[in-house]
Amino acid sequence: MSSASGSERAGESAASAVPAEEFDLSLPEALRPAAEALFGDRLALAAAFATLLGTDGVVRGLIGPREAPRIWERHLLNCAALAELIPSGASVVDVGSGAGLPGIVLAVARPDLTIALVEPLARRTAFLAEAVTALGLDDTTTVIRGRAEEVVGGPLSPADVVTARAVAPLDRLAGWCLPLTAVGGRLLALKGSSAAEEIAEHQSAVSRLGGSTPVVRLCGETLLAAPTTVVEIVRERAVVPARSGKASRPERRSSFRTDGGSGGGRRRRG
């Protein structure tokens, strides 16, 4: 489906949810250079998703009404900047996808990626499925209802990259996400200003779970006033708890480099 038709369908869905004039969801001109750099010729599709978030997303309680005027800066651009750390053609699992942040944003910005959105709550998966179809992303993006720990060992293959945003502290996040990551693949957790403190507190737990020393990366430094803070963890070895009733599957290794060569984010040790 073309970007134009996806935008039209998204606009129709949004119009039925909240009056368009209630929030100004248009792209602020000051942010246009960054948006054009991050979304390229799919900027119209990003705008359609902004409309969905600011209308249906607010009505369904996926984001707060106060977030609507800040959708571009706080959510879309913040998530899209993460794409610089993800190599071409990678498989991605977005854990706790919620309103599609960062999963749907990455699907819009990077049509070369294969993305699975994992989310346990029915009302959120319903929104995600509708958004994926409305935006014409069905060929590259799937929605899976369930908790991360429930889908390990299921039909979902270990991914080159697992993403998560504002889900949980780093130790719990690693416990949920690393088993979904291919050995040699990476967990990319979007974090705030406390990222370094989280690393110091949870580094030993991450290591016990098979992860490398976490590293802080800053994405979108040349584009965004507030770069996106990402904690990167490589899955160095498989440490998967035994699960009764589930057949074990051979561990997949990521074919992508994990030495920092695949992404342009500035590296800052925590």
TrEMBL record:
Keywords tagged on the record: Cytoplasm, Methyltransferase, rRNA processing, S-adenosyl-L-methionine, Transferase
Pfam assignment, any one: GidB
Presence of the UniProt keyword Repeat in the record: no
Subcellular localization: Cytoplasm
Keyword Aminoacyl-tRNA synthetase: no
GO BP annotations, alphabetical order: methylation
Region (Disordered): 241-270
Any one Gene Ontology molecular-function term assigned to this protein's record: methyltransferase activity
Cited Gene3D superfamilies: Vaccinia Virus protein VP39
EC number of the protein: 2.1.1.-
Chief localisation class: cytoplasm
Residues annotated to bind S-adenosyl-L-methionine: G96, L101, A148, E149, R165
Described function: Specifically methylates the N7 position of a guanine in 16S rRNA.
Cited HAMAP family: 16SrRNA_methyltr_G
Family, as annotated: Belongs to the methyltransferase superfamily. RNA methyltransferase RsmG family.
Name used for this protein in its record: Ribosomal RNA small subunit methyltransferase G
